[in-house]
Amino acid sequence: MSRILVVEDESAIAELISINLRHAGYEVTVAASFEQAQAAVDAVLPDLVLLDWMLPGQTGLALAKQWRGQARTRELPIIMLTARSEEGDKISGLDAGADDYLTKPFSTKELLARIRAVLRRKAPEALDAAVEIEGLRLDPATRRVTRPLGGETREVKLGPTEFRLLHFFMTHPERVHSRAQLLDRVWGDHVFIEERTVDVHVKRLREALQAVQCAQLIETVRGAGYRFTQQVGRVAA
Hints:
Elements: E1 3-7, H1 11-23, E2 27-31, H2 34-43, E3 48-52, H3 60-68, E4 78-82, H4 87-95, E5 100-103, H5 108-128, E6 131-133, E7 136-139, E8 144-149, E9 152-156, H6 160-171, E10 176-177, H7 179-187, H8 196-209, E11 218-221, E12 225-228
Parallel strand pairs: 1-2, 1-3, 3-4, 4-5
Antiparallel strand pairs: 6-7, 7-8, 8-9, 10-12, 11-12
């Protein structure tokens, strides 16, 4: 389930968009201002942002530029929503870093189609690109996991299942994943495996990451599952 942040200060519009997105199977968070939007992204990185141009205080345009300038949010998919329909406005929105631009009023079908298109374009990058958190670097192309430690780059030796598990965790940081969700996304829902098997592989993954002082990045959330944290300062260099 993709997580979408709706940044819209008009409550009626925000509610209408949210209802339609949830009906389409998306998980939705709503923010009504620049500050609320930044706080929501700081808490949990969404899969996509629907960003209104006109917001109280600073504009959505400024927010898009800010996110594009930060490493954590540089690749965050953004669709800008606005009543400004002039060509110059569209160019400004795209130049600020928006992946797409939708002019109000718009149909729900068009909005959903634009969302699917942007998520499709971003998905291959997420699968193939190297990902790095707290110095821990995973490269799907070379299937290597490394981290600088003590003046040298150390490689983490992982089995294929632990590698897939770590890749999923690192590309979906700060989110709590149940054992059932991990089985579905990492092993595949066509494979029948007991949920406790997830615990075994998480334990193996932690043991392997301990060699580069990263075991604590994988947190157990009591009664819910596991979370991969990317909070700065949690890991020694």
